[in-house]
Write a structure and sequence with these properties.
- Helix content is 21%, strand content 30%.
- By secondary structure, it is an alpha+beta fold.
- It folds into 5 domains: 202 residues, Galactose-binding domain-like (Jelly Rolls, Sandwich), CATH 2.60.120; 111 residues; 320 residues, TIM Barrel (Alpha-Beta Barrel); 248 residues, Rossmann fold (3-Layer(aba) Sandwich); 80 residues, Sandwich (Immunoglobulin-like), CATH 2.60.40.
- The longest helix has 29 residues.
- It is globular.
Length: 998
């Protein structure tokens, strides 16, 4: 979602969102200006709605709406509006509608006490207009949600000029029911399904331009220049997708005499109050700061602040200033000074105020290099240790550049570097949210290289299904699955070389200290599960020296603990060559809550990150999509405290290794490759089928999402879980594990024999989500069936193709009921009937057919589960509620699960006594142990929705540490050491480090 955008300045007369004359007459009734009649409806801030964000297609005009709980019935709220001309009007409701739920509410329009119109809105399945000019009934975006919608019946209401009453009423809201958040009601004489910026696409959310044009916020200024003048105001950049260009206007219409105050001017339509608006002022020949006052009314009676702004600096208009009585305009520099003072006098500052030395903290302030000293002071006060002027404490080698995509760009960039800049340079980005690219499949030269590669790697005609190596053609990769598999591997080999060469060139031109990486985005389907070759194998083959990834846990429909999976993937990738880890932790506010940010800021270094990159931070007016708005003080505080807390733990974090677990989940390239190549009709997914805007076909995600949900279920059992690949298994990694989980319909044909030998020696295998009944070439595979003690398991039915855990799982219709441990468990997504050979049946489908089996094999066992056990586990704990992207309704990891579903998912780990590096008394607190020569540090992350008091942690150590100390509380903790186990008790808010020095 990050964008580096070439911003152009556009005059107010030309900007697409400026005032203009339109054929239609429009009346806007803002949700926050309705008057609730009793309980039920209430004026609601955007942070308490289903969307609080700094990017995308979800925006609330003026930062507020009218909200009502999902179960409210009969509540009313009213607003009197003025109808400009008599005529027929369509009545639109613009509200939030995350997929799959009802948001039923009624609108009535009356004049002179007579009801002229009524209609019920918000029924799921209704045709509506959506974010990004979407037109659909239900909404399906591959990345999750951007769920603003506008709905109106075709019939119009005839209204006379003059006053009219609009009434909002909560009505019966069938399950699944969501809260009603109405941004505004629109009355328009336009009869068609359209709005400004609809076609062609020019505005992120329906009817936003119409609403913004009606905004009222007045300012005036005092002319302190020596001559009559006007004031120019400009936005340094835009935030409101897709309008990122800066805008400017000049006020008032006539010059203001020297020394005089201007008239009051309505700048509401110029501002884009779907976010805070930063306005840069310019008064020619100003003598000192420019005085500005703001008011909600044209007479200046309802004042909302007065500021003195240095010429060419910014003052900020809060998004909710028109209705939130606590909001005032303020100068950015003044707000920065307040934050600096808080950092120095009030916020907790660990490590005696010393910044980290080895763990680098990146974050852009004021478009680094802007020259504003107050911006650097703020960055320094928060604790950043990179890219600061030399008068501030910062790492000596911290240079950073985005992006050089090829050698030509790299050479051009380096040609402008001084020798000193080269010596100080550290991080080179090779791309943002990229793929690794494709070879030229049609090149004769590439065909020759493919043939040579097949020979070099030992691929035989048998591997190719009887085709001679010289007859294996890249052009046949789609028709022949075996050629397709090896062609993909060859493509990876070639692309790894491109990045390897670019890395070598960067170090040659700049210096050996340079680290290269390319950010991998978690947004594409399936979220947080990128292609194995890109997310793992390129690092195995030294394509880049630094793993670069990002969190975004507040923004995607996954439990926030999925960051654990992300960093486990990172450790899987770098275990071969010990690359560095550069990790984006996006502090976006509005959007990310401070407690979510705290978890990520502490968890990431504890899980192995060497650099934390907060991307763009402040001043917000200088950035497009990614920033921390000035009023989110807790976010700035969390950044400060987390950086200094990590500084206090740094000696124990750096050069230490994460203590591994004895349980592994397989990252299967066979599953990944084949699921990505599936073309599943949306009609075969019972939720996608209800969404007109969904693509006709989609890749399957069931096996990969199942692996993720299994991983989380095991963490909730207090097991440390590693991720391994099929290549790892063929190369002997199984000796390091006692339990292995595998999910998916496909498995590398080389793997079953390795698993069989390992199980006979005492290993425990758990398979689900298809049981590897096909090999990587999408051919029948019997190897895993033999291990599982099954004669076949090829009767598979599915009713889902794509699962996002906090989006589809809560409302997914069970495909069947599985009985296990004498308890019925709703199964989701996939149903597979098992036919035992030697296996024992321990769970059945509703028709009595086997669903779960166990097979004794030598000293070990192999469990087979004919459904998505991890997904069934997660579904059992998820509340049935809409997914909220950002803000106070952001979902947390659930903590109440079906005991039988839990037992089913944890069958594998329950079959073996495992020695874990650490366990916690609360199952939803995760502990990561890092140990080095100076001692150990335990990173704790609380994935529940409230602090945990009296948490007991048991840590496996070969020595008794000198002490146990909490960084956040800065105190020594009660601890005991016996039989290699250190027991520590502490109170935990959201995340903390426990220091265990030798």
């Amino acid at each position: 979602m990050k964008k580096l955008i070439a911003l152009s300045t556009i005059s107010a007369a030309l900007v697409i969102m400026a005032n203009a004359t339109h054929a239609a007459d429009v009346v806007v009734a803002e949700g926050e200006f309705f008057k609730p009649q009793g309980d039920g409806w209430s004026v609601t801030h955007m942070d308490d709605s289903y969307a609080s964000h700094s990017y995308g297609g979800m925006w609330l005009s003026q930062g507020g709406c009218l909200g009502a709980d999902a179960d409210s019935v009969g509540a009313t709220a009213t607003q009197i509006v003025s109808i400009p001309v008599a005529g027929a009007y369509r009545v639109w409701s613009k509200y939030q509608a995350p997929p799959y739920f009802n948001y039923c509410h009624k609108i009535e329009v009356s004049q002179n006490g007579k009801k002229l119109f009524e209609h019920t809105y918000g029924k799921k399945g209704t045709d509506r207009l959506w974010s990004f000019s979407g037109v659909s009934d239900e909404l399906w975006w591959f990345w999750g949600v951007d769920h603003d919608t506008a709905e109106a019946p075709k019939n119009m209401v005839n209204l006379a000029a003059g006053a009219a009453e609009i009434k909002l009423i909560t009505v019966d809201n069938p399950a699944p029911a969501g809260c009603r958040f109405v941004d505004f009601v629109i009355l328009t004489t336009e009869p068609e399904d359209t709005y400004q910026g609809f076609k062609p696409y020019r505005v992120g959310t329906p009817f936003a331009i119409e609403a913004l044009e009606k905004t009222e916020l007045y300012i005036r200024f005092r002319n302190n220049s020596p001559a009559a003048a006007k004031l120019q105001i400009a936005t340094p950049t835009g935030h409101f997708q897709p309008n990122y260009g800066s805008r400017r206007t000049t006020i008032p219409a006539n010059d203001v005499a020297a020394g005089a105050w201007s008239e009051w001017v309505n700048i509401g339509p110029f501002c884009r109050l779907v976010h805070d608006e930063g306005l840069r002022v310019n008064l020619k020949d100003a003598k000192g700061p420019v005085e500005i006052e703001a008011s909600r009314d044209p007479a200046g009676k309802d004042k909302v602040g007065a500021v003195k702004v240095i010429n060419n600096e910014c003052f900020v208009v809060p998004v909710d200033i028109t209705w939130n009585k606590s909001r005032k305009i303020f100068a950015s520099e003044d707000r920065a000074a307040e934050l600096v003072k808080l950092a120095k006098t009030s916020w907790r500052t660990s490590n005696k105020g010393r910044k980290p030395k080895s763990i680098l903290y990146y974050g852009s302030f004021g478009r680094d290099g802007s020259g504003n000293q107050w911006v650097s002071q703020l960055k320094d006060a928060i604790g950043y240790n990179t890219l600061l002027p030399d008068k501030y404490d910062h790492a000596p080698i911290d240079g950073y550049h985005q992006h050089c995509h090829n050698i030509r760009e790299l050479e051009t960039y380096v040609s402008n570097m001084s020798d000193d800049q080269k010596k100080r340079f550290k991080v080179m980005s090779l791309g943002d949210e990229i793929s690794l690219g494709q070879i030229n499949w049609n090149s004769p030269e590439m065909q020759d290289k493919f043939t040579a590669w097949l020979k070099q790697t030992g691929i035989t005609a048998t591997d190719l299904g009887g085709i001679k190596i010289t007859d294996a053609k890249l052009a046949d990769r789609h028709a022949n699955r075996r050629i397709g598999w090896y062609a993909q591997m060859f493509n990876e080999h070639e692309r790894f070389g491109i990045f390897r060469d670019l890395t070598a060139k960067a170090r040659e031109l700049i210096g050996p200290q340079v680290e290269t990486g390319a950010n991998y985005s978690p947004h594409p389907t399936p979220m947080y599960y990128g292609p194995i070759y890109q997310w793992v194998d390129i690092f195995k083959h030294n394509g880049m020296t630094m793993y670069w990834a990002e969190d975004y846990v507040f923004s995607v429909p996954m439990p926030p603990q999925i960051i654990s999976w992300m960093l486990a993937t990172v450790r899987c990738a770098i275990k071969y060559n010990n690359q560095k880890v550069h990790f984006y932790v996006m502090p976006h506010a509005p959007g990310q809550l401070a407690e979510y940010l705290r978890r990520s800021m502490i968890y990431a270094p504890g899980a192995g990150a060497d650099h934390i990159d907060n991307f763009w931070i402040a001043p917000a007016e200088n950035y497009t999509e990614n920033f921390v708005a000035w009023n989110y003080t807790d976010t700035f505080r969390t950044l400060h405290e987390s950086i200094y807390d990590t500084a206090a733990a740094e000696d124990l974090l750096v050069n230490a290794k994460v203590a591994p677990g004895r349980t592994a989940v397989v990252l299967s390239k066979a599953v990944d490759h084949n699921e990505r190549n599936q073309k599943i009709s949306k009609e075969d997914d019972h939720l996608m089928a209800k969404s007109k805007n969904a693509d006709k076909t989609v890749q399957q995600t069931l096996g990969r999402v199942e692996a993720q949900m299994i991983y989380l279920s095991l963490l909730h059992g207090q097991h440390k879980v590693e991720l391994i690949t099929e290549d790892d298994i063929t190369e002997g990694i199984l000796k390091d594990f006692d339990v292995v989980y595998f999910a998916g319909e496909w498995i590398d044909h080389r793997v079953p024999a390795k698993l069989e030998s390992w199980i006979k020696d005492g290993g425990i295998l758990y398979a689900s989500a298809g049981l590897g009944i096909r090999n990587e070439f999408d051919e029948p595979e019997a190897g895993l069936m033999k291990i599982l003690g099954l004669s076949k398991a090829d009767q598979i039915t599915k009713n889902l193709a794509v699962i996002r855990s906090t989006l589809e799982l809560p409302v997914a219709t069970p495909i069947d009921t599985l009985t296990f441990d004498d308890t019925a468990i709703p199964a989701v997504g996939l149903r597979q009937e098992l036919v035992p050979a030697s296996a024992k049946v321990i769970g059945t489908w509703a028709n009595g057919k086997p669903a779960v089996t166990v097979n004794e094999l030598g000293k070990g066992k192999a469990f087979a589960v004919g459904t998505l056990a991890g997904c069934a586990y997660m579904k059992s704990g998820l509340p049935v509620q809409p997914f909220a992207r950002g803000g106070n309704r952001t979902p947390v990891t659930p903590t109440t699960f079906n005991p039988a579903a839990t037992k089913l998912a944890q069958l594998g780990v329950s079959a073996k006594e495992l020695k874990e590096p650490a366990t916690c008394s609360n199952p939803y607190v995760e502990a990561i142990v890092k140990t080095g020569s100076k001692g150990s540090v335990v990173t704790l992350a609380n994935w529940t929705d409230k602090p945990v008091d009296g948490l007991e942690i048991k840590i496996r150590l070969d020595h008794q540490p000198r002490e146990a100390r909490s960084v956040q509380s800065d105190k020594k903790l009660t601890s005991t050491y016996s039989d290699g186990i250190l027991t520590v008790t502490t109170d935990l808010e959201w995340a903390d480090y426990i220091l265990l020095p030798r």
